[in-house]
Amino acid sequence: MMIVEQVSKRIGTRNLVQEISFNVEKGRMYGIIGPNGAGKTTLLQLLSGMEAPTSGEVLLQGQAIASIKRKELAKRVAVLQQGGIPAAAFTVREVVQMGRFPFQNWLGEERSDSEQLIHDAIETMGLTAIAHRQVDQLSGGERQRVALAKVMVQEPELLLLDEPTTYLDIGYQVQLLDTVKRWQQDRQLTVIAVLHDLNLAAHYCDELLVLHEGRMAAYGPPSGIMKPELILGVFGAKAVILPHPETGVPQLLLAPSVPPSEIR
Ligand SMILES: Nc1ncnc2c1ncn2[C@@H]1O[C@H](COP(=O)(O)OP(=O)(O)OP(=O)(O)O)[C@@H](O)[C@H]1O
């Protein structure tokens, strides 16, 4: 559904992202991982059409993403940015409703089942009890769940998530990714997510793209990516990789680089 061809982004003399190419297939989930400053958010902005590449091309179903009109793009691609909901005095319900704006005509009218969509998204994200509260009075985790409910009502073909588990406790991290995964599988949604937690990325993503200093350091299924040499080379961290005892998915264990006796 998307072809990313030799995409680079340069600002001044800095190369933020360099010569990235990969194909995105419908109904799959892709993880972008890499250290701080590697270019993950920049790449996601290029994939969303929010930023234009300096060279190379992003094609969404054969059409250059840069040439698709904003409103049309907003119907097809939803982006969950870091801290991406307004800090203004809107209620949870009002913010979720905003996800339907691209579908309204100039009179603010749209299809009749949109109320049901909004109701379902609020319920799925466990927001029913706080639907009347103002978003600027919510915790970081609650706001993140509101942001996901807002993109859910957009019913996009492609969902781009920038560190969606930030602010969430471990229970909600798993709940949010479970919700996205179920949605991906039930509706053939395509998902590309920047994730910092490599263990969650290995469990939820079909393919992982590893960025290092703006370049693609590796690309493939988690079983091919979660290798101690790669983790050391890219993150500079010594890791032990073990299969999860229940799922068999490779999981990473970190250890301090100094002996425990020196830490105590
Ligand atoms: N507008 C800009 N002008 C110049 N440099 C920028 C600009 N935006 C980002 N950068 C730099 O580009 C590099 C990549 O930034 P980016 O935010 O894409 O990294 P990231 O991998 O998402 O990092 P993090 O994990 O810390 O969120 C960083 O070194 C950053 O300082």
TrEMBL record:
The keyword Transport applies. Keywords: ATP-binding, Nucleotide-binding, Translocase, Transport. InterPro entries: AAA+_ATPase, ABC_transporter-like_ATP-bd, ABC_transporter-like_CS, P-loop_NTPase. SUPFAM superfamilies: P-loop containing nucleoside triphosphate hydrolases. GO terms for molecular function: ATP binding; ATP hydrolysis activity. Pfam families: ABC_tran (PF00005). This is Heme ABC transporter ATP-binding protein. It comes from Paenibacillus albus.
